[in-house]
């Protein structure tokens, strides 16, 4: 995994985030990525080699290991970190698309032309939806992986001794897990940080939706029905659309949809 690329990606989206998003980014880097890279990989190491059973029956060791550890914790967390950061890439791409569209517009109409977007990085129009959907996706990924971890291993505990009776084992054999206490601590830590990230994403989603609803209510209160009936004075109408939609009124008329 290219951690430098991951850091650059998330740092790029940081400037478009709210306070909740910046805290989420700090939790991901300081508590999840750093712990995963520095400590968790070393604690797990070669799991199958350190998994010992008190039998010499050929194949028994491998079958028992696969039964108790169908998916490695460390690989499951790596997938989780990859999937949970993918939505941030979509936000960066959307902003880059806006900036490129604005650049082409200036080339075509001149530097003194009216801008398509008041601020290409401002969460308005399509970018607002992209950002909110990215939050929902991140919450879904974390919830899914926390559930998968619980479902696959039947909890978050790490016993030091497990009993295996899978074929071709001759009978019930005892198998020993290396560093069970360390693995238990790291597992609980990663689960707790995932829950914290879920709560932060939920708070940020509620904040953005609440802010949008508040702005909509204020606009309808200040200009009841006149906005949609076209009865506002042009300067007020421009102001309302610029503030609420993030684009200037002439541009709004030209655009089929906000992206």
From TrEMBL:
It comes from the Eukaryota. It holds the Pfam family Connexin. GO terms for cellular component: connexin complex. It is found in: Cell junction, Gap junction; Cell membrane. GO terms for biological process: cell-cell signaling. The chain crosses the membrane at residues 21-40, 77-97, 128-153, 185-209. The keyword Transmembrane applies. It is a multi-pass membrane protein. One of its GO terms (molecular function) is gap junction channel activity. Residues 141-208 form the Connexin cysteine-rich domain. Keywords: Cell junction, Cell membrane, Gap junction, Membrane, Transmembrane, Transmembrane helix. Residues 42-75 form the Connexin N-terminal domain. The keyword Cytoplasm does not apply. InterPro entries: Connexin, Connexin_CCC, Connexin_CS, Connexin_N, Connexin_N_sf. One gap junction consists of a cluster of closely packed pairs of transmembrane channels, the connexons, through which materials of low MW diffuse from one cell to a neighboring cell. Belongs to the connexin family. A connexon is composed of a hexamer of connexins. This is Gap junction protein. It comes from Cyprinus carpio. The lineage of its organism: Eukaryota, Metazoa, Chordata, Craniata, Vertebrata.
